Amino acid sequence: MELKKLTDTFAVSPQIRPADLAALREMGFRALICNRPDGEGADQPTFVEIEQAAQQHGIEAHYLPVESGKVSDQDAERFRDYLETLPRPLLAFCRSGMRSATLWALASAPKMSLVDILAAGKRAGVDLSGLARRIGSPHASSEEQHDVVIVGAGAAGVATASSLLARAPNLDIAIIDPADVHYYQPGLTMVGAGIFRPETTARPMGSVLPRNVRWIKAAVAAFEPAANTVILEGCRVVKYRQLVVCPGLKLDWNAIEGLPQTLGRNGVTSNYRYDLAPYTWELVQGLRGGRAVFTQPTMPIKCAGAPQKAMYLSSDHWRRTGRLDQIDVEFYNAGAALFGVADYVPALMKYVESYGINLNFGFNLSAVDGEARKATFTRALPGGGTETFETGFDMLHVVPPQKAPDFIRVSPLADAGGWIDVDQTSLRHKAHENVFGLGDVTNTPNAKTAAAARKQAPVVAHNVLAALGMTRGAAGYDGYGSCPLTVERGKIVLAEFLYGGKLAPTFPAWLIDGRKPSGLAWLLKERILPPFYWRGMLKGHEWFVQPQVAD
Questions:
Q1: Where does the FAD/NAD(P)-binding domain lie (predicted)?
Q2: Are 447 and 505 members of one domain?
Q3: Residues 363, 309: one domain?
């Protein structure tokens, strides 16, 4: 029997036989629902045979036959009654299990969100995406269509829209995003160090979107790429000729036990959230002694240097105020190296040694007890298995695990890891030719930084227009990413690299040598990049990032 568990107490399966009932009872099943009409196949046992065998083993059996491909709303209502009244665990079956899964999905819709239903199906190996419209709202009919639809109005989405309009001013573009505020995320490190005011890193979403772009202020529920359709929550339908997907990452705070309950108090903070970055600076200023712990989860994460940036800038402040000798600074990194590109490690290690930072590799933060000021880490053992380690803290800067948003991970656009599956050069989806992805949500092996999105946006803009027949040639992305590592106030190690960690400096070494701390690089980070972001990148100006186009 091939059982597929959709919940802890409900599973579906292909056709079962009387001889299977003993094993099902051993598994704990207490009730069955047969969704396959008798006589559908020549080798199919009748429901009466199944029912008699079930009774012998103390299992309830119920008959709700549904023709293949004809699951009605009435069928789903009757199935819902069974879900609510029959003892658990419960098994439903048909020829393949698909009709039973369909009935479960439709019956569960009133109490579960579409994303949760699709996620349960994907975990069980059942594709329920074809039910997106029926699950969302079977009677909704609102529909609109655009030449280009962009999902996500972060740095990547707005930059792509602006780059498209810079090339084709009359293009019909819609951006889908429910957020009211657009954040300049690279600035949060500086907020956490008291250098930027929080309000300078946030602007109303409507003020940063291009004027002649249609803003659909809604959340995406599902994709139907075969129908060139995006399904919004509430089952509104948006159709497209070309689709660009760039919704960013999901910060998975709940993956660390106890963390959501203590964020923003008990000395627990994170520069990865706008409302918490000021608390980081408050803690840094107030700490007079004790242990300051900084964490970094497993990759991928947005801006892999950000966990260190907070640590270096905090240590610099404590040294400038004469307190560093009274503070033990600990860095717990789930990875095996300080930084992914080896050329920059020597410069960073000098600061680690100068600040007296204790490095701990292979440790992943798994739990936080804010009231007790205790952090628990998990480490894999060489011979298999894991061990846990607990340490106290007076300040804890947490970087949460990160993954693709739920509606992406359960979609037909995702790879096995949940990321948008694109060609790393063209950024075109590998299976759907009129779909592109960029930014943090793709499976490209580059650093997830704003600098990467700045380089990717013109590539996607060109390739979308080429797909629409409005230009020629193919643009390519080379994996460029940049991480300005703020090693002290006034100095930055400017890491710039391509796919494979190949160095890719923007400036000549006599001006800024990225492998050494630089005051000019700090000036770039503090004074030049913010207006460059707001007035350049988001406005479609492609300074230093004009794409290379091949015929």
A1: 146-259
A2: yes
A3: yes
The structure tokens listed for 14 are 């292909």
What local confidence, expressed as pLDDT, does residue 145 receive? Answer: 95
Domain co-membership, 88 together with 196: no
pLDDT for the residue numbered 141: 52
**What single letter denotes the amino acid at residue 259?**
L
Q: Is residue 217 part of a domain?
A: yes
* E strand residue ranges, 416-458: 435-437
Does residue 300 have a cis bond before it (omega within 30 degrees)? yes
Residue 142: the pLDDT is 61
Residue 133, in any domain of the structure: no
Domain limit, last residue, from 354, 381, 401: 401
Residues 286 and 242 in one domain: no
Residues 397 and 264 in one domain: yes
Which of 34, 235, 246, 483 is flagged as catalytic? 483
Q: How many domains does the chain have?
A: 3
Same domain, 381 and 266: yes
Q: What angle do CA 428, 415, 240 make, to 5 degrees?
A: 45
> Which of 370, 401, 432 marks a domain boundary?
401
Element (H, E) at 397: strand 395-397
C-alpha torsion 457→458→460→466, nearest 10: 160
Q: What is the pLDDT of residue 385?
A: 86
Q: What whole-number distance in Å separates Cα of residue 369 and Cα of residue 383?
A: 29
Residues 168 and 193: beta-carbon distance below 8 Å: no
- pLDDT tens sequence across 27-61: 999 999 999 988 877 778 889 889 999 999 999 99
Q: How far apart are CA 496 and CA 481, in angstroms?
A: 6
Answer yes or no: is 71 within a domain: yes
Q: Which residue has the tokens 């300049």?
A: 184
Catalytic position from the list 34, 235, 246, 303 = 303
User: For 276-301, how does the pLDDT look when each residue is reduced to its tens digit (9 = 90+)?
Assistant: 999 999 999 999 999 999 999 999 99
Find, among 519, 540, 290, the residue nearest to 393 by Cα.
290
What's 201's DSSP letter? G
303 included as an active-site residue: yes
Whether residue 383 contacts residue 278, with contact meaning beta carbons closer than 8 Å, is answered with no
Determine whether 75 is exposed, middle or buried from the number of CB atoms within 10 Å of its CB (0-12, 13-18, 19+).
buried
Q: Does 483 participate in catalysis according to the annotation?
A: yes
Q: How far is CA 147 from CA 144, 169, 233, 442, in A?
A: 11, 13, 21, 22
pLDDT < 50: residue spans in the chain: 138-139
Claim to verify: residue 540 and residue 411 sit in the same structural domain = yes
- 135 within a domain of the structure (yes/no): no
What is the domain extent for residue 187? 146-249+404-550
Distance CA 267, CA 292 (A): 9
Do 265 and 373 form a contact (C-beta atoms < 8 A)? no
Our measurement of the distance from residue 45's CA atom to the centroid of its chain's CA atoms, rounded to an integer in Å, reads 46
> What pLDDT score was predicted for residue 137?
56
